[in-house]
Fold this protein.
Amino acid sequence: MADPPGQLVPAGASGVAPAEPALAGVANAARRRHLVRLSLFATWGTGLVVMLADTDAGSLVTAGQSGARWGYRMILPQLVLIPVLYVTQEMTVRLGIVTGKGHGALIRERFGRGWGLVSAISLFVSAIGALLTELAGIAGVGALFGVPPLVSVPLATVFLLSLMLTGSYRRVERIAIAVGLAEVLFLVAMTLSHPNAGAALRALGSVPLGHSSYLLLVAANIGAVVMPWMVFYQQGAVIDKGLTTDAIRQVRRDTGVGAVLTQAVMVAVVVSVAATIGLGHPRRSLHTVGQMATVLTGALGHLGGTVLFGVGMLGAALVAAIVSSIAGAWGLAEVFGWQHTLNERPSRSTARFYLAYAAVHVLGAVLVLANTDLIRLSIDVELMNALLLPVVLGFLLALEARALPLEWRMRGARKVVTWALCLGVVGFSLALAPATLGVR
């Protein structure tokens, strides 16, 4: 006779041997590992994708120019920027998850519509600038393989516009990570360049702060690391992903891993160019993506110079184009109060959000087809981002201090370190503002 539902059966009473304690322990351990994997899959991704996007086409070109002009001496600034990048994006994680509101919405709520418009304008300029460098980078990569810009840029634009039809933020995030991981190929290129490890270590102690051209490239690298659209994107992404305060620790780790990875890629580009172009033609300026690839091909061969560089650059450009354009549309929607989410396909209620998303791409494509001088354009955009840093970090620090409940605000040494890093970067950007604005 079957046992009544829910009734405990004494050992041996049903004719079935009791489970071995060891087997039960193994099953419980397997179940815990499965839950951890599910937790990581659900919470990880926003930090990684925004950091992969941070190493965009403009950032890589700036890193390449840095390696060509100053060799291994540009490694140290990349390493110093890791904690700056982490503390900045960690604040956006807490703001998004705890308040459940996007960056633009919080600025409008806490500081008024006028300051909200200031933040929206800063974001829009930065997002358009980023998209220009990404599409110009895609045009440059296409040219390496004989594809003209009139073909590569429209194809990339169609791909980016098609993402709005997925109806799922998580699906967009997975696509972005998949294409962005192509950046890891730059680590392979660095290995093939056979850098001089001793010279690289000695260069860590040689920082030519007395040279204005070095300082301007450092400013451009700072602008290539902390960009307004990154803050808007990650704060909106943790909301669209539905993350709660229980996930903050995991998202912090995700962001930390991403910060190290993105700067490792930047170092790889600096080292690859320093060990090839910088060694044979010191202080040489670069003018096109093709020129960078051609010179690297001469030193690394076709695989290292063209294929690895081209595919890595394409992945970097695509993931950054996805993130910057979404961030731009999200930020405008938050400031103007439009309904916005990637978890719904375009409809009447989300029409203004999706129209803004499409307009950014079309405008970017038209401007790039009119001017594909990526090197000059990229460095100018990164310098512009450096000039916008005081606005971005100022709002971020103010919101962290005012919009979060007391238990979620920074305290003690952590607060001192974060403020010191952010104010140090802001001070550096402001000190170089006159020289930056005078660059031609």
Observations:
- Residues 176 and 250 are 20 Å apart (CA to CA).
- The chain has one domain: 44-437.
- Confidence is low (pLDDT under 50) at residues 1-19, 31-41.
